[in-house]
Predict the 3D structure of the following.
Amino acid sequence: MNNSIQIDNIGCLYTANENGVQSYENTSLIIENGLISSIGDSCEINSINCNGKMVTAGFVDSHTHPVFLNNRENEYSMRIAGSSYEEIAKNGGGIISSVNGVRNASEDELVEKLEKRVNRFIQNGTTTIEAKSGYGLDTDSELKSLSVIDRVNQKHTIDIIPTFMGAHAIPAEYNNNPNDYINLVCDEMIPEVSKQGIALFNDVFCEEGYFNIAETRKILNKGIEYGLKPRMHADEFIDSGAAQLAGEIGVFSADHLMAVSDSGIESLAQNDVIGTLLPGTTFFLGKSNYAPARKLINAGINLALATDFNPGSSNIQSMPFIISLACLFMGMTVEEAFQAATYNGAKSLGLENKVGSIELGMKADLILWDLNSLIEIPYYISNHPIQKVIKNGEIVFGA
Ligand SMILES: [Zn+2]
């Protein structure tokens, strides 16, 4: 057999799908041409011995902002000294401070930075990420950011799902006429992004001080008109009715939801919208307002978990750590958190038939752990005993 690998002597294999977590004991896998071709059989080919340890599907991180130039550790210090995220933003920090970096950087510089970050995702067992633009906030810089994502996606084995997020913030030069910026997003950026075919999704930061309900509706509908699928940052700081809008539009995912109202929850549930929770942001900002995961699950909403990796409010790239936070602070079970970090993340990207679980014909995206059971993932809160990461059947970490 060509391009075949066998993963042998797996003590326990865990994978999730719409029915929850499945496990197989004392099993093996065969990968052919990058895809899972058999579970449980073995044959005499190149084999990797797991020595009875655990194998899981690779993580799907369905919400990241990885295209920026420099880190923002100075803001972290300001926050430790007592400034809030909102205060830092008002003083020229926050999203806007990353905008100057992206506007002035060359595409090559940004590619180099993104590649390093992508390697760190891989080391933490993440084999698929969604990546947003949104630190350019002018047509050229947004297109440049998406081109950076595209170039790294072509070069790197990780799968990167590109999202256009021109509506991440109003850039300073439009502070006095935000409507003109919204028109720029709708009439220039979205048509050009669509023409270049370099984004699958269109995301809007629907929040007080960013984009209100009417503006968000307009931008998402314009994207839909141009073939960009909608997703939203919703009800992060206050309940602005964003979750109701997410339900009304039928977005692929409504993200954050720390301040979601009961009617917002109802709207998400009725319209089968996935809620993506980002507990890393709450944790990184030193807050305690975690999203009401149990309430959302009890309402019948499927939850995904993601890092929200970005230089301001979540310098976190580890999905195992996010699973720890989800279990400790949001009352999710380990099984729920694992499903949210794999299958449901893939579903929120429309990729559940390709990645996020270990099934015949799916991409062979696997984590070989030096662990024995799922419960140990959140238990090892600050280091992750990962032996190898396999993407498309290739060892990309721990060779
Ligand atoms: Zn975000």
The mean pLDDT is 95. The first strand starts at residue 4 and ends at 17. The first helix runs from residue 73 to 80.
